[in-house]
Amino acid sequence: MLIYGQRIKELRKERGISMMALAGAIGVSDTAVCKWENQTSEPKLSYIIRLAEFFNCSADYIIGRSDDLGAYVGQDDLTAEEKQLLSSFRTLDDKMRGLVTQTVKMIKNK
Questions:
Q1: How confident is the model at residue 19 (pLDDT cuts 50, 70, 90)?
Q2: How far apart are CA 69 and CA 72, in angstroms?
Q3: What's the whole-model pTM score?
Q4: What's CA 63's distance to the chain center, in Å?
Q5: DSSP 8-state class, residue 78
Q6: Among residues 70, 24, 18, which one has the least CA distance to residue 8?
Q7: Mind listing the domains of the chain with CATH numbers?
Q8: Residue 83: enclosing H or E segment and its boundaries?
Q9: Which of 6, 34, 74, 109 has the most beta carbons within 10 angstroms of its beta carbon?
């Protein structure tokens, strides 16, 4: 089920901005924003990224792959150590990723 239109509209309304204001902020027409919200047109990847940056959420949230609003994190926002950790994490199999995730959550909750 596609929900990007709902998400864009909700994020926009939560911030109390018009379609025209959102369009101006990300460099598209207000017609484009209207079409996205009504799901008669899909935003290109470059606009999804701009939306995520503008709303400070993840692109996955906008396109409905996650219900966690998250925050937009670009590679430029990561330190060298964070990039190395992320790179190493991505090489792990699902079982090991789960163990690492559980461990981090336990440490965080202490």
A1: very high
A2: 9
A3: 0.64
A4: 8
A5: S
A6: 18
A7: 4-63 (1.10.260.40), 75-109 (no CATH)
A8: helix 80-90
A9: 34
